[in-house]
Protein 1
Amino acid sequence: MMNKLHGIIFAYLSNPDLRELTQHRNTCSIPYGGRYRVIDFMLSNMVNAGVSDVGLIVHANYQSLLDHVGSGKDWDLSRKHGGLRILPPFGYSGRREGIYRGRMDALAGVRSYLQYIRQDYVVLAGGDLAVNLPLNDIFEAHIRNDADITAVCTSRPMGSPKDCDYFTIGAGGRITDVLVHPPIAQGCESLEVYILSKQLLLSLVDHCAAHNIPSFSTGVLQAMAGQLKICPYVFDGYAARLQSVAGYFARSMELLNPEVRTDL
């Protein structure tokens, strides 16, 4: 079933709270655990679930990332057709120059790439999350629930609220409200991994571009929670969000715990 799924990884952010760690690289290529880069985890999640085509959206400070992922050979993604594709800024459309203001802005910049995706469904994920996700189970839940969007979240918030989104899950098992970067954590914390159909994704990209909406969180999840069937997938395994220097140190020290290492 997983050959119906295409991976898109957002690898264009350099979190300023990580200071010197992202001076010459973006967040995704920060070393983690002594032998990995953070992007290794999301790439491995996708490949282990049978996803054979992955697009990597980059913007600035990505030389370190390119040096690391190369042609994708280490993940068996070096192929003539499909495999790993690096999506540089403005390489796919005659867009204005400037930084991506949000995920919908980034997706609009690679719309012509999205248009020719071979698969029926797309998984959107950040490359700055160290987690071992059961993507097969998440995709099966998406099909079983007949959801428009399946949003992966955790009931054990670990991130900084000013950098995170939170979901309120209603009685029918649907997400009824979305809090974007609130002052305190409330509800389930989004891991910012989403599954939706290619067709819906393209229509959302066009809608947001036409209305100058750069953010997926506010422009899609928050604004359309009443219109779309957005279902949560609650994942309570270990997940590391690297959002600050102190957080990077704390998440690195947690790797000394054998249970955390086994989970990852």
Note: DSSP finds nine helices and 13 strands in the chain.
Protein 2
Amino acid sequence: MLQNTFIHIQSIGAITEQRLWESGIRDWASINNEVSIPLSAGRKYYLDKGIAESLEQIQRSNPAYFSKLLPSNQCWRLFPEFRNSTVYLDIETTGLDRHFNKITTIAIYDGQAIKTYVQGQNLENFIEDIQKYKVIVSYNGKSFDIPFLEHHFNIRLGHAHIDLRYILHNLGFRGGLKGCERQLGINRGDLSDIDGFFAVLLWDEYQRTGEQKALDTLLAYNIQDTVSLENLIVTAYNMKLKETPFYETHFIEDPILPGNPFRADLATVDRIKNSSQ
């Protein structure tokens, strides 16, 4: 879908892009055909320049170029082109303020392998591992996960970023990651009752008692958030395709999601719930 996209080019908006599609200019290569272009000379100049630059950035395998130019609710368009260098990311923390709270666990999933990072064990390994990827998919990561990570590690994450919060909101889905999942019929099973606040309680329990089952439950929750992002980006991508002429040719099959290597311990969950009440 990226090479069918024109709205990242200067002076080309959604209405102009639709006019280009309707006139037969469906992708960047079409501009070389004998097709009448419904643009002024000035816009035609920017279109030619933008396509040339876009082709160069594709050759350089630089998704960040497109991520910066596309509206946040349109970054889904770069997903298939760079899927093989995409990572799904979610963090858990002791609170919401990155200046006063700490990261407890991080989970990443690249469509093949799951990795987890735990405070006091291997959290610093994240810095090297995240550099293997060019695209980050998150939910609300632009406002929360990425600023938190950059502050915690004192690094700059210059990856292209697909934040599903904006895309799903544009599709009419609200209520956080788990709220969107429920609206889309996704069931978390034993992890259904665990949320971000409860994740803080799980970490506190682990810190206080050293109980491995509390940490395992937290990691199971963290991983579920991460793995779910692949399912959601594919679902959102296909739904957004229906707004374009390319649904039949660009549709993506649902991914086969991996099993979660950690399990929620329900006895631990019940005990923490009862003590917190």
Note: The two ends are 50 Å apart (CA to CA).
